[in-house]
Amino acid sequence: MTGPESEGSQVRRAVCPGSFDPITNGHLDIISRASRLYDEVYVAVMINKAKKGLFEIDERIDLIGQVTAEYGNVRVEAFHGLLVDFCKQRDIPAIVKGLRAVSDFDYELQMAQMNNGLSGVETLFVPTNPTYSFLSSSLVKEVATWGGDVSHLVPPVVLDALNQRLRQG
Ligand code: PNS
What's the CATH number of domain 10-134, 3.40.50.970, 3.40.640.10, 3.30.9.10, 3.40.50.620? Predict the structure, then answer.
């Protein structure tokens, strides 16, 4: 047998879930820190059929794959449905989330408690690097749409993809 089932509980796994439309330096900061704490980190890109993003799911996965390749232990996958099911299928006991500010906390706490109640999966909160405490994919898209400089907020490959997509209109 290959894959997660064959490795038992020896391999310490965690998941960083999100929409990643597109991945920002704030996301990357959390993923890189998780990758130093765990043997394997899954980046789970949520498929939201009700909301069309700027980037298709495959494009988001491709960008995340490119910017996390250097860590060596990050896998990127799409998911739909419950995050706890994604975790169960891959033997992942921990969700790692960044907390930017107190305003994130209320909803994140509710999700963490719900996920723990559903399946026992734990959520670990990592305080975001203060450099990125105001950063979100939505703001990046808005600023870039109106010609603002976001080059310090996203990796270069994401900046190129963003500029190209926005030029397409
Ligand atoms: O980047 P986002 O959009 O803030 O990420 C939100 C995400 C994907 C982490 C959250 O919506 C989620 O976990 N969705 C999966 C569906 C699910 O499990 N819902 C129950 C959570 S209690």
Answer: 3.40.50.620
Mutate to test the pocket of ligand 1, among 15, 19, 128 (most ligand atoms within 8 A of CB): 19
Instruction: Report which ligand 1 atom has the smallest distance to the Cα of 84.
Output: 18
pTM of the entire predicted model: 0.94
pLDDT tens per residue across span 73-121: 999 999 999 999 999 999 999 999 999 999 999 999 999 999 999 999 9
Where are the strands (E) in 67-110, listed by range? 74-79, 94-99
**Burial category of 50 from C-beta neighbours within 10 Å (exposed 0-12, middle 13-18, buried 19 and up):** exposed
Question: How far is Cα 76 from Cα 46, in angstroms, rounded to an integer?
Answer: 11
